[in-house]
Amino acid sequence: MCMPGRGGRIMLEKQKLICKQRFEFEGKTYFPGEITEQIERVANRWVSRGLANYADPNAITRNGYLKHPKVSIVILIKDALKYTKDCIESVNKYTNNFELILVDNGSREKTKAWLKHLDWLDYKLITNKTNKGFSYGNNQAIKIAKYDYICFLNSDTLVSPNWLGKMMRGFKYSKDIGIVGPSTCHCATIQSPQVFKNFRAADQKRVNQISELTKEGYTETMVVGFCFVFKKEVFGKIGVFDYKRYGIACHEDLDIVWRANKAGYKSLWCHKSYVHHFGNRSTREMGLNPKEIRAINKPVFEERIKDDKNLFVENDVEVDDVKEIKGTIPILMITWNRFEYTKKAIKAIQRFTENYQLFIWDNGSSDGTEDFLRSLKSKKIKVHFEKSNKGLIPPMNYFLNEYRNYRYIAKVDNDTIVAPGWLEGLKEVLEEFPLTAVEADHYLMLNYDIKTNDDYYRHLFSVDFKGHKLYLAEIVGGTGTLIRRSAIDFIPEMPGTLSGWIQYQHERKAISAFYTGAWIDRLDQVSTNKFKEVSDYPEYDKEIDRLRPSRLKPKKRIRDGLFKETYNKTKEWYEKL
Questions:
Q1: Which region holds residue 80: left if phi is over 0, alpha if psi is between -120 and 50, else beta?
Q2: What H or E segment, with its residue span, contains residue 77?
Q3: For residue 188, is it within any domain?
Q4: Distance (Å, rounded) from C-alpha 136 to C-alpha 315?
Q5: Dihedrals φ, ψ of 257, to 5°?
Q6: CATH number of the domain to which 43 belongs
Q7: Exposed, middle or buried by CB within 10 Å (0-12, 13-18, 19+), for 55?
Q8: CATH code, 309
Q9: Which residues of the chain have pLDDT under 70?
Q10: What is the three-state SS of 206-218?
């Protein structure tokens, strides 16, 4: 957590911890049960390593997640393209368990062209030929929203980690809460404390820091429309936004909250949630003066609340042009010879995968693979050629940067045959659970003396999901794997080895999973921990043995309790969701 210092600087605040075991740190011995305070970076490391727990059960790390019911998020778009881009990128990175509804309110061609190529997350797009205004556009979205909670978010905002989960906790404040809103730097109510107003011109990094200033707390008050979440049932009682009364914008948010309050629903400011609001970006780009619009609509609202007992506003808007876009998932395949395997692996992806972009990095193949890759003409395949073998980590980091905005990315080796529905199945897992990665089930190849996958899986904490098993772990492999892009940074290279991805997970100790609801085959394996007796590519295998000598070592026996720490950690993680 951060606090402002002199001159508005952001300074680190310490987090309170309870030690779980005896250990040494910077010359001091800590004992079980001891309470201490450490800066966030150290606190996060101690908790991830099982040395301590947060003293505050509501403490949330940057990579934490507050589980909440699924929410329909509505963003109206009327140009202001830079802010719109940043807003959607922010939502994509810091939000889980939602559907996204975008309403294009008659934007110019530049904005429409950008929307046409927006393919890195799932969303519904309503397109209006002219600007229908804030109320009309929101009412259109209400008509197609699937879920019991609807969030209306301005396109000139940036969200912060756990912004939605922290807001959704407000509905537990009391049964009659119908609307919740966050803290911000710019609005006309008490939701924008003075300390935040000093940071209005902030980027995403600073927004995340500002969000750490917020304190837990709730205030029953009028919340306003830069960002608020409604229970869907509220619209059944009072109807929707009053576009006929207020036109393009201004005071329709106050009106609908007032009507909800009159109908017995309270509105709540959730202090801990932070959404940064730049303010009036679309309005000003349209050449409108927000003050003039407010001056016109203010007396309309004041007259409305004097003695108007007719609270219900019918949702009579028309929704003519709706498209449902499924986000593209980029897939990385690294090739180095093994021509026949590569052909079969690519064919399987083309046959059994939807909504993908296959990015192939060829590490200087010399057996006909390069010519084959150059002959591929599919728009869904992009190939990068290297003259020499760069290993695994440089292509992974290149791929991470190339597809940095995408919600999910995947990795498939060129000896892997995917099956129908594999990617959709893995995506369902990540949509439901805030895991870092999930790997499809396949014949495992581990350094342990196991004969079947179950010999390993039985030591892991498991969860039932859609009739299959999800085995939680701190490390998964790198083929048939779907990864939450926002959860990982660039991977440090370990020259002369193939251990970068595994080591990266080992150091981060994030939670991932193996999923038995999706299956892949490995062309060089015949069963768990067993390669083909006669290799199809012996020279390739010799090079892999040199880079991964552990393959040649005797397998270790899994002793009772070997994975006890991982089991307990993943179980605790799941139970806190």
A1: left
A2: strand 71-77
A3: yes
A4: 9
A5: -70, -40
A6: 3.40.5
A7: middle
A8: 3.90.550.10
A9: 1-14, 32-33, 48, 54-64, 284, 287-288, 495-499, 548-554
A10: HHHHHHCCCCCCE
Residues 75 and 15 in one domain: no
Strand partners of residue 177: 266
**Domain of 396, in residue numbers:** 328-575
In a domain, 169, yes or no: yes
| Contacting residues for 109 by C-beta, under 8 A, at least 6 apart | none
The distance in angstroms from the start CA to the end CA of the chain is 22
- 437-441 vs 481-484, strand pairing mode: antiparallel
Q: Give the pLDDT confidence score for residue 239 in this predicted structure.
A: 98
For residues 456 and 37, give the distance between their C-alpha atoms in angstroms, rounded to a whole number. Answer: 38
What's the confidence (pLDDT) of residue 64? Answer: 65
State how far Cα 183 lies from the chain centre. Answer: 21
Q: What's the total number of domains in the chain?
A: 3
Cβ–Cβ under 8 Å, residues 386 and 363? yes
Residue 368 CA to its chain's centroid (Å): 39
Locate 58 and state its tokens: 């509501």
pLDDT digits (tens, 9 = 90+) for 22-53: 888 988 988 766 778 888 778 877 876 778 77
Question: Do the strands 356-363 and 381-386 form a parallel or antiparallel pair, or are they unpaired?
Answer: parallel
- The C-alpha atoms of residue 182 and residue 162 are separated, in whole angstroms, by 11
Q: Are residues 345 and 376 in the same domain?
A: yes
The C-alpha angle with vertex 346 and arms to 345 and 350, in degrees rounded to 5, equals 120
Q: Are residues 292 and 209 in the same domain?
A: yes
pLDDT (0 to 100) of residue 553: 66
Nearest-angstrom CA–CA distance, 438 and 473 = 10
Q: What's the pLDDT at 92?
A: 95
Packing angle between helix 81-94 and helix 204-211, nearest 10 degrees?
Answer: 50
